[in-house]
């Protein structure tokens, strides 16, 4: 059966499911591009900061981070603030890393929401199709497969579509969760290495 015909047979509930599907791809592609850009920028500024630390030209740090994305710069600033005590430094760095993680996970809640709600949207289509079946039986005064076939078909298509959309959303959500965790861990480890280099200079 042609996809367009299948879509039409699914009834009106297919339109919100279609919107969910488009939303899944938009969010996923945008998040992948954002994570790729973050990784590239984080490595670039890490390399530049490492060069500055090794050359002991710490006065260049201010200029470097003025052109750095805030989500990266804030965490780096926590390392190079010499006025902080060890405890304050660790607390501030922890807060900055939390902010970075929050930024990396931005909009991912939408995928989670779609994954959890799509089956219920499909189920609503199922209930609607069954209600239409009983309505047709009541109006025709007859019972039989021929009378309710259209409505039952609509109900099954809606159910299947809702489950399919939810499965795709869960797959992308889990994939992005793994990528975000890996990105955040790498960023944290690189900051730790940077802090060790900086602290060795002060000894």
Automatic annotation (TrEMBL):
It holds the Pfam family MotA_ExbB. Keywords: Cell membrane, Membrane, Protein transport, Transmembrane, Transmembrane helix, Transport. Residues 81-187 form the MotA/TolQ/ExbB proton channel domain. It is found in: Cell membrane; Membrane. The chain crosses the membrane at residues 12-33, 109-131, 143-176. InterPro entries: ExbB/TolQ_transport (IPR050790), MotA_ExbB_proton_chnl (IPR002898). The keyword Protein transport applies. It is a multi-pass membrane protein. Its main location: membrane. Belongs to the exbB/tolQ family. PANTHER family: PROTEIN TOLQ (PTHR30625), TOL-PAL SYSTEM PROTEIN TOLQ (PTHR30625:SF3). This is MotA/TolQ/ExbB proton channel family protein. It comes from Bacteriovorax antarcticus.
């Amino acid at each position: 059966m042609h996809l367009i015909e299948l879509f039409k047979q699914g009834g009106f509930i297919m339109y919100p499911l279609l919107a969910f599907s488009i939303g899944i791809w938009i969010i996923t592609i945008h998040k992948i591009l954002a994570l790729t850009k973050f990784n590239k920028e984080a490595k670039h500024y890490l390399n530049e900061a490492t060069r500055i630390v090794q050359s002991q030209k710490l006065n260049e740090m201010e200029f470097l981070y003025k052109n750095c994305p805030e989500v990266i710069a804030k965490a780096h600033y926590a390392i190079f603030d010499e006025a902080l005590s060890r405890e304050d430094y660790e607390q501030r760095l922890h807060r900055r890393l939390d902010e970075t993680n929050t930024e990396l996970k931005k909009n991912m809640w939408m995928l989670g929401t779609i994954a959890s709600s799509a089956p219920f949207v499909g189920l609503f289509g199922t209930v609607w199709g069954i209600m239409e079946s009983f309505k047709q039986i009541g109006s025709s005064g007859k019972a039989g497969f021929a009378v309710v076939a259209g409505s039952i078909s609509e109900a099954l298509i809606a159910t299947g579509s809702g489950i399919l959309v939810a499965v795709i959303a869960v797959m992308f959500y889990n994939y992005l969760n793994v990528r975000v965790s890996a990105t955040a861990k790498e960023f944290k480890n690189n900051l730790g290495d940077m802090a060790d280099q900086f602290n060795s200079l002060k000894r």
